[in-house]
Write a structure and sequence with these properties.
By secondary structure, the protein is an alpha+beta fold. It contains 3 helices and 3 strands; from the N terminus they run αααβββ. It has 2 domains: 55 residues, no CATH class; 33 residues. Strands 1-2-3 form a 3-stranded antiparallel β-sheet, with no helix packed on it. Helix 2 crosses helix 3. It is rod-shaped.
Length: 105
């Protein structure tokens, strides 16, 4: 992805991340890189953002967990040590459930 680029991978990723995350202008980034001893033009940073943003988005979306709102609650009434108790079990997809015991009121 970064093969043949003039600048190091870490510099490119830093500029793209700062531009997208902190709403900095391209000229601000140019100035910040100059303070760090790197002579980067604002148009170069813009080309990096246009080129790498979609690719980074694909990588991030591939690694994100799927968000699901489905869960199930099971409830039953059992006797534990001579006392009746409610047994609740909370399950989510592909996870073990939590078990909660509660005494009968």
């Amino acid at each position: 992805m970064f093969k043949g680029r003039h600048f190091d991978r870490s510099v490119i990723l830093l500029c793209v991340r700062w531009y997208l995350a902190y709403n900095l202008s391209l000229r601000d980034l140019e100035e910040m890189m100059a303070e760090r001893g790197l002579n980067v033009d604002h148009s170069t940073v813009h080309r990096w953002v246009v080129h790498f943003s979609p690719r980074l988005l694909e990588c991030f979306n591939g690694r994100k967990r799927a968000i699901t709102g489905k869960w199930h609650m099971d409830e039953t009434y059992i006797k534990v040590r001579g006392q009746w108790t409610y047994l609740y079990r909370h399950r989510q997809r592909r996870r073990h459930g939590r078990i909660l015991l509660q005494r009968k009121p």
